[in-house]
Amino acid sequence: MTTSIERSDSTGASPAGETVRQRRGSRVNATRERILSTAERLFAEYGIGAVSNRLVSDEAGQGNNAAVGYHFGTKVDLVRAIARRHNVEIEERRKQLIAGTRDSSEILDWVACLVRPVTDHLDSLPAPTWFARFGAQLMTDPGYRQVMEQDAMETPALRELLAGLDRCLPDLPAEVRAERDDMARQLLVHTLSERERALAEGRPTTRSSWHDAGTGVIDAITGLWLAPYTPAGPDRPADPGETMNND
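The chain above was modelled as a monomer; its predicted structure follows.
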């Protein structure tokens, strides 16, 4: 006599071969992904400081308000998890570009290794994307920005990129380099963020694709590094007639 009840074997496996532990692991992973996607969207829209872990849990459909803490720990840990979720693919793209750039002495080539992996990654994501705006929100919060920059510098590809770029840069005073480094970072992050926002809102964009947008940013950052600078004395404003060339 047969029964309609299907029993698991002694390992807890279902007839399809999936164990209880595997099923539970799948549910946990799905919950984590839902929390990450929800947090990324909320942080991108409202800012990291304005969004509580409780709000993330609620918006992610978690009955337990402590779900974020259970799965990720602190808000810093959650932010790190969102960044790493994207940076794994970005890092791999960057490695491939650097492999063909190591012998180059052109600033444009090294700047492309900085920009192109990010725009290609954004292009690969389903619309609407939130990652560029999430990155812009990180830039406005000094505490989270410092944490993310420290994490980024642990990636071998980014360290190699910065070393390669440094070899190509013109001989600029330290303060000018620091200033332009910050300008380049702002240009990259906020240009991509504004394009992502325009796409999400259905507004026209200046470039037709993420690839073309990346080309524009690469050109702009390259031009920024190669631009002349005007030396200024400690007690007087700069004289426009003293503008220095970088060659």
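Residues 1-8 have pLDDT under 50 and may be disordered.
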